[in-house]
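Figure S4 source data
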Amino acid sequence: MEVYITREELIRALAGVQGVVERRSTHQILGFALLTAMEDFLQVTATDQEITVINRHAARILEPGVIAANAAHFFSVARILPDAPVHLVSEENHRLVVDAPPAHFRLMGTTPDDFPAVPPFEASAVLTIGSDALRQLIDYTSFAIPTDDNRYGLNGGHLESTTNAEGTPLLRMVTTDGSRLCYAEAPYQGQFGMGRHMLVPRKALVEVRKLLTDPEKEVTISFGERAATFTVGSSLLHTRLVEGEFPAYRSVLPTSWLRKVTVQRIPFLDALRRVSLEAQDRASTVRVEFSRDEVLLSARSVDQGEARHPVPISLEGAPIVMGFNVKFFLEVVNCLEEENLTFEMGEALSPCVVKAGERSDVLFIIMPIRLE
């Protein structure tokens, strides 16, 4: 193998697989990336045997070939190379020469024969969705997926097909960790075909999100029996789906409210950030006092001190005092861009529904905490 590639493109190629390679696996090969030189591009493949990422990057190929290199170490080398064309050459004994004058490296590689094969995949349904639309679905929901992989039925994103009032097909993603629930939806074209008892793993959604850098591109999602592929331009991600019975979430969506609050997002976000510094108990509790024209956020830490911060609001209904995990609210408010937020509430321990302005395509539910 002999390849010329720009330093920037090489860094981009290796950065794109860092989230997939396994650094602590008992299978050493899973810490390696497979470099394949073909035609006019360098293909970089990485896998943890659950997720496989294949990216193609522009390069000048003098001699086709393939070699496996330690992904983390090669990435470290690429980032400190001088700003010059990088010359890659594979040698005997699976060594990889990296030349970017005056820098010169000879890296230890391994045989590509040991690298896991790309899983076979046969699509039963295929749809397309805008890159920016899929980005929003992930940004609005992925933070509510538990990081505990043992939480059966909750440890992934639930996808389903629905329609709006005009009959337009919508792809809806729903996530929950038991204390909050998020859903977002966006139009798509094609055929939805994910199994009822399948979820998209959190790690796969994180890696797909990294591919969505061009808002003008379309994403092709193909569904197999227990797997799915996401194709964005010259990049492909294959993931096994998680088997799990997602909760019947529609039954817990509130259909009415006793209190409705409208607040400007940025002032509310600033107040949350400040008060969160003192919300140091186990549940990161913040006390939220809704009155007629303001909400008072307060938190107290036995070791650090206390904080109070008012924010102007408009309240329909009677005043109320509630408790919330401030981290849950911060993640919701951080992911939005609308000027105003709306909270719909019942009693002190009833779910709080958070809406983004007048939008109906995104919804958040946060469960309150009992105050002492």
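Figure S5 source data
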Amino acid sequence: MLVEVTRHINATPEQVWAVISDVEHWPDWTASVTSVKRLDEGDLRVGSQARVKQPRIPTTVWTVSELEAGRSFHWQAGFFGGVITGGHYAEAAPEGGTNLRLVIEARGGLTGIMSGWVERTSRKNMNMEADGVKRKSEAGAVAA
């Protein structure tokens, strides 16, 4: 199962990156995340972990598996006996601004049986997140 959501944002890739990489502040700008607790300190990096609580979803520990500083990161978590990977991309748009792309891919375990619920829930949450990143980035009020 693969879900992708995109938004054009009238802010620089650096501004968008500052928002998406500051995972502990996600609850400040999206209702799809109740709380995020980093399990390490410093900048987001490969191996960083965060405990994420979302409405109607079990609390999940996500581990950063890939990162291109200033541009993108992927993180993974165990989910219904399978693996779910979330990708977050801040790409310079040819017309100016930034193209935000959010991707979720679920594989294995019960994801086949639960794919309808997982896809609907993921798409709803990702749309809330994309809208929140857009609002936060365009406001220029990035938390330090």
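The mean pLDDT is 91. The radius of gyration is 14 Å.
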